[in-house]
């Protein structure tokens, strides 16, 4: 009886293991990628791809509202992933292995898989190398491969690199998003890489990645870390942000001619993409980055009203994206493609086959190497027909004739180009040294080595662009193709000058901007380990620089201290002077108010023809009060001097009192109330000292500021009615002479408040039909 329980448990254990194996077998048999796609086991990749496209279109969740459409679409995608890869397809055909049941297809080892039913399998904990996702395994990077292949390739396309490890549990959560992003970006040309920090410690340290998971971008050999929430859209935007800003130019009806005519200056063909989406597609941006050294790229949004003319000009079909490629002829495209689904292979082939003008200019060594490659095999000979010419207008007809000849001789074995002698003097001197010739000359050459060795021959008779010259050149080219020994001279060509080297400062500025942006980005996201040496160097330099400046400033101020002390003491000796107030105040550092006198010369420009919206603020004064009131006026209006619509003037009422009287007569509501009491009296004139006028010359109105009452205004009405009036007038006259300048300038005490109301537009406006004439009047004694 004691053995029976053990035997029962053993059989129960075997039965449970058998049930688990049967369950896995049934689960594996349920998913058959061939049945899902409806293809046979002998179907070709083209048939599998065709079936996948049809089913994906049919079961896409955005188009198919069936509740099970999403699950079916996942099965279709998963089936295509297995069958489109020969290695995974072979594993499934031999062992029935997919990503999920790969470890179950292995030879059974005891009852090890019984524990897998409790979800403690290796794939869950991600223990061993064999459980790595196939997508990651395909893109694993090694240090040598990264340095020798990935970094040089990053100058043609950006890379998205994931840093992971075997013990990274967080990496499991981002795996679905990473796989979807890889499928999308890899299809448009983005390079993908995966670095296992446990196996490639050296590469991880080189990249500056010290934690997992991390995602970084690589472009032009520069590494940029991704610091945002991991989502498909964010990763796509991150890749777009790696690309330079002005890769693709937005083209409309207003600038398309300028864009197409840019081939002369930049020596590149121009490509225009017409599409209905408002943003430039990522695939097009990546293509423009890969071919930026050879082709200019523009984008036309067909949905804009500003592109109607260009669509009609080139008869563009708005139902499918269209690409036009222009060379020297800007009125007719050299090549056209139109397609509904943009494919990277089609666009690359289209641009690569047209990356040179029909007759390009040799502007640097890179263009020379691409246009005239070194001979490798006899069947791959390429001859360069080179025109040495000049930039002056005298050479225009010669150059056009050479272009016409090249247009009619488009054999693959011939490449036509031209150089400006002044720009490429060493090259021209080498090719023309055997014969005393001057441009224009045509030279046929064949490159024999990358070091610069060439075989060449100068076309006899020179080149003037005549029909005879064209016939002679045609005969010699025909002879060359029959007898390669026709090239009788050899030479070692120097490296070509880079004619775009003048743009070095702009390129340096762009590189500096990118470097500073990257440094700011790293500082913002606390990548301190890599940034600390640079930050320390920058702060040390800034400390030395500003420390020197501050010490120099203090030393200069100490040397200038004695003269300042004298300037402060001088006002004390002139304390009794009328100008004591002005000299005792600190002189402003260019903080002044410009006040001009309103005379018959400046009257028209400062008032009558004053620009609309501008106001001239005029202070009315006398010769005696001029100095005091001008100082007070400048102090009151100083805070408003920053306005560009306000101008400041002063009017000498001793000379132009008649103008003031006429102005106030034209606006009766602006006259003081005292005028009603002095009607018929001509012995007393109104005192306008301290009045301020805000004159709007365009709209013909003014605002009036009356001075604060100081107890000095004349009281002519009472003196004329009472006995002894003459004595009282003399008394008031003597009191005015005794009045100090301190009392006079108090007339403008409330001017700043009045100016605030002027700026607010709340002051009453007095309109006049026309401005009175200003004539000089003899001052009254």
Describe this structure in words.
This protein has 781 residues and is an alpha/beta fold. It folds into 6 domains: 33-93, DnaJ domain (Helix Hairpins); 137-242, Glutaredoxin, CATH 3.40.30.10; 249-353, Glutaredoxin (3-Layer(aba) Sandwich), CATH 3.40.30; 365-492, Glutaredoxin, CATH 3.40.30; 502-532; 592-669 and 688-709 and 735-780, Glutaredoxin (3-Layer(aba) Sandwich), CATH 3.40.30. The chain has a 6-stranded mixed β-sheet with strand order 15-17-16-18-19-20. A 5-stranded mixed β-sheet has the order 5-7-6-8-9. A 5-stranded mixed β-sheet has the order 11-10-12-13-14, with helices on both faces. The longest helix is centred in the C-terminal third of the chain and has 32 residues, at 528-559. Mean pLDDT is 77; it is low at 101-131, 557-590, 675-683 and 710-739.
């Amino acid at each position: 009886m004691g053995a029976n329980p053990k035997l029962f448990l053993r059989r129960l254990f075997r039965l449970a293991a058998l049930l688990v194996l049967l369950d896995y077998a049934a689960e594996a048999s349920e998913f058959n990628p061939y049945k899902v796609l409806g293809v046979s086991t002998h179907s070709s990749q083209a048939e599998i791809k065709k079936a996948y496209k049809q089913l994906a279109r049919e079961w896409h969740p955005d188009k198919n509202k069936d509740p099970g459409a999403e699950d079916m679409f996942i099965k279709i995608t998963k089936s295509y992933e297995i069958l489109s890869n020969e290695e995974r397809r072979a594993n499934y055909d031999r062992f029935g292995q997919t990503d999920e049941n790969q470890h179950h297809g292995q030879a059974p080892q005891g009852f090890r898989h019984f524990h897998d039913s409790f979800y403690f399998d290796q794939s869950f904990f991600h223990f061993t190398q064999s459980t790595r996702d196939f997508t990651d395994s395909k893109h694993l990077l090694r240090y040598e491969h990264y340095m020798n292949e990935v970094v040089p390739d990053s100058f043609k396309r950006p890379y998205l690199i994931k840093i992971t490890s075997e013990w990274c549990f967080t990496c499991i959560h981002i795996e679905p998003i990473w796989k979807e992003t890889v499928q999308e970006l890899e299809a448009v040309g983005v390079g993908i890489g995966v670095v296992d920090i446990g196996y490639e410690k050296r590469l991880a340290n080189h990249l500056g990645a010290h934690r997992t998971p991390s995602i970084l971008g690589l472009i032009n050999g520069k590494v940029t870390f991704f610091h945002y929430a991991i989502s498909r859209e964010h990763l796509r935007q991150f890749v777009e942000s790696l690309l330079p800003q002005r890769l693709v130019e937005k083209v409309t009806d207003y600038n398309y001619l300028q864009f197409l005519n840019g081939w002369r200056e930049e020596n590149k063909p121009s490509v225009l993409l017409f599409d209905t989406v408002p943003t430039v597609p990522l695939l097009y941006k990546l293509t423009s980055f890969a071919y930026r050294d050879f082709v200019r790229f523009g984008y036309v949004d067909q949905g804009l009203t500003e592109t109607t003319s260009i669509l009609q000009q080139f008869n563009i079909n708005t139902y499918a994206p269209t690409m036009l490629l222009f060379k020297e002829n800007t009125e007719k495209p050299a090549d056209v493609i139109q397609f509904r689904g943009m494919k990277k292979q089609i666009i690359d082939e289209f641009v690569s086959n047209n990356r040179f003008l029909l007759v390009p200019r040799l502007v640097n060594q890179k263009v020379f190497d691409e246009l005239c490659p070194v001979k490798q095999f006899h069947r791959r000979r390429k001859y360069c027909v080179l025109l040495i010419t000049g930039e002056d207008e005298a050479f225009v007809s010669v150059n056009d004739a050479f272009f016409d000849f090249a247009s009619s001789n488009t054999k693959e074995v011939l490449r036509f180009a031209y150089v400006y002698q002044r720009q490429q003097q060493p090259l021209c001197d080498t090719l023309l040294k055997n014969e005393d010739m001057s441009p224009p000359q045509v030279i046929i050459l064949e490159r024999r080595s990358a070091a610069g060795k060439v075989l060449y021959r100068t076309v006899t008779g020179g080149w003037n662009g005549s029909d005879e010259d064209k016939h002679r050149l045609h005969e010699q080219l025909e002879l060359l193709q029959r007898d390669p020994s026709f090239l009788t001279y050899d030479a070692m060509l120097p490296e070509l000058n880079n004619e775009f080297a003048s743009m070095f400062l702009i390129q340096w500025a762009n590189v500096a901007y990118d470097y500073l942006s990257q440094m700011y980005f790293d500082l913002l996201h606390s990548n301190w380990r890599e940034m600390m040496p640079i930050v320390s160097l920058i702060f040390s330099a800034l400390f030395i620089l500003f420390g020197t400046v501050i010490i120099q400033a203090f030393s200069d101020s100490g040397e200038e201290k004695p003269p300042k002390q004298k300037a402060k003491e001088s006002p004390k000796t002139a304390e009794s002077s009328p100008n004591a107030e002005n000299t005792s105040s600190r002189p402003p550092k260019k903080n002044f108010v410009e006040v001009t006198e309103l005379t018959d010369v400046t009257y028209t420009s400062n008032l009558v023809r004053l620009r609309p919206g501008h106001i001239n603020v005029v202070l009315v004064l006398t010769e005696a009060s001029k100095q005091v009131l001008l100082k007070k006026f400048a102090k009151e209006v100083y805070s408003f001097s920053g306005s560009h619509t306000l101008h400041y003037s002063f009017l000498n009422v001793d000379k132009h009192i008649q103008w003031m009287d006429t102005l106030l007569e034209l606006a009766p509501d602006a006259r003081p109330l005292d005028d009603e009491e002095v009607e018929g009296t001509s012995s007393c004139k109104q005192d306008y000292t301290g009045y301020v006028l805000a004159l709007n010359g365009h709209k013909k109105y003014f605002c009036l500021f009356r001075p604060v009452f100081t107890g000095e205004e004349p009281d002519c009405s009472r003196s004329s009615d009472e006995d002894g009036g003459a004595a009282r007038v003399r008394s008031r006259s003597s009191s005015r002479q005794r009045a100090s300048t301190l009392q006079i300038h108090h007339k403008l005490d409330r001017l700043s408040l009045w100016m605030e109301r002027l700026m607010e537009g709340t002051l009453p406006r007095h309109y006049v039909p026309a401005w009175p004439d200003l004539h000089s009047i003899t001052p009254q004694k």
